[in-house]
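Subject: for your reference before the review

Hello V.,

The reviewers asked for a structural picture of the protein, and I figured it would be easier to keep everything in one thread rather than splitting it across files. Below is the amino acid sequence we used in the manuscript, unchanged from the supplementary table.
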Amino acid sequence: MDIRHLQYFLEVARHNSFTKAAQALYITQPTISKMVRNLEEEIGVELFERVGKRVSLTDAGWVLFSQAEVMVKSFENMTVHINELMDLKRGRLRIGLPPMVGASFFPQLIGQFCDQYPGIRLELFEAGSNKVEADVDAGILDCGVILLPTREGVFDYYSFVNENIMLVVHPSHPFADRSEVPFSDLEGERFLLFHEDFALHNRIVDECVRAGFHPHVVYKSSQWDFLSEMVAAHIGITLLPETICSELDTERFRILPLVNSSLKWHLGMIWRKNAYQSFAMREWIRFSQESLPARYTAK
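And here is what came back from the structure prediction:
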């Protein structure tokens, strides 16, 4: 049984006539008669009582009629919804964004996307790169922004930012008058870092170990502006991407490049490799990749 059997059956029942039903459906009468006969053979009961050219529903026909209306209507609704998805009139996307990334790059992009596709619902989840990557892998998120590199066997991605991590100190700090600071000179400093959920936390700790020391971490936060205010309060130093540093008041902070450092803020949008991609998801990847600024300033 396919949906056409039910559609043809309903049309005959509504018109009480194979001839009128065939005319309404723009098909031949033998075709609709054969379809109804096949349906009766499949179910094993007669659906119509035939008296001359006029037909009426049997008891079994009335049972099928009430159920067939629901099934055909559901099928029609499903078809409409699928067509709307294909036309990007509806859909849902779950996107993970680290706090630094969301505020710096995505408000305007998200606004433009929502204006162009008002029927697509964007659900934004704020979390560090490690959490975003794990949730995309688990299917909790459709895609998300992380600090690259990522597992290329698991994820597809595109990169949109690759810039240096800068040292941020108080204007009275001994480093403040320098033009640059070797990373090894940070030994003994009080570090203000992001929480462990943020990939940048582990990258900084690893860089310290490569430079021959373990960082003395005095505070952790999930907010870059809070970390910078802690620097302003002369509590310690922090390391932030160039994009974030450009928003800091140079009267209150000294921003210095680091020498002999491999730290980079290399961002990418990831999604699970070989997973099903909705029409909305495909359009988001295309739209965001074309709209996000490709910035590669890291040396």
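For the response letter, the relevant points are probably these. The chain has three domains: 3-86, 91-154+269-293, 161-265. The longest helix spans residues 59-86.

Happy to draft the paragraph if you're swamped.

O.
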